[in-house]
């Protein structure tokens, strides 16, 4: 895979095993029309870009209005990076620009990635029907979630995201993604069966408005936990890792994670479940939605942001053993982990069978275009 990108700082790296290259540089020109590359067989790769941003780096004064960045991704078979030739960078007037163009080789990254099996993306291992069949063959406790679309929209309109949480709406307005988040909130709230006397904690909460919704409509007793918050307990905010939460034993009744546990590195997802068992009262519930599943245990990762995504994070993520890697710069995540049926049983179901009862809910289809990104699987655990 070949990736070319424009950056303002040094985040370039090289991995010989995967033919993975990042070039960075800023080019002062009205626009970059194309970049020409030639592989070892002299086959031309031509990628057209036309990026103009009047607001990029105004600190550059007049030059800031013409500062251009570039990013192109192509997959090339039989690719030999040592023989790649960057021929030219051309603007719309056919003038050649090559200022600040660098190629860095990070052998430390190369050596680290060689410890893992790196595979190409294969959509067939993410097919819902096949995953569900495999889960049933594995005797996982799988139940259909009976989604009521009318009830959901009544709830959505009552919560009124646009009125009560306009900044959140703006952040997730693209491609109906607000409904993606709202569906997660709705499903977790319904499956938790929240009561007025419940003590709720939102794990990896970040900027989520779900705790606000729960506080307004269900229970006033809430916590929000995230490693980005100030360390310790500060009112309802808890700054900590998910596997080391500074709350008393048996102190909460309901827990939810929305699109988050897949990012827990170095088996801290397993550590979180141990911690959740400690802080939950008997009969307390955890809802994890979505539960990311695949036919094979895989982890998506974006190496270019490894050292910049989270504070206090190691430069190189410590991935769970037995998981293949899929390199994907577009997702901008250090880790997105997908369980297979086998790995879910091995890592969670069997080790925690004396601590939690569990159910995995699935949704096959919601016949509505604006609800097309629904959580296919949701994991519910109840403390014994």
TrEMBL record:
Pfam families per the UniProt record, alphabetical: Methyltransf_11 (PF08241)
Record-linked InterPro entries: Methyltransf_11, SAM-dependent_MTases_sf
Molecular functions per Gene Ontology: S-adenosylmethionine-dependent methyltransferase activity
Domain Methyltransferase type: 235-288
Protein name (record): Methyltransferase type 11 domain-containing protein
Organism: Aliarcobacter cryaerophilus
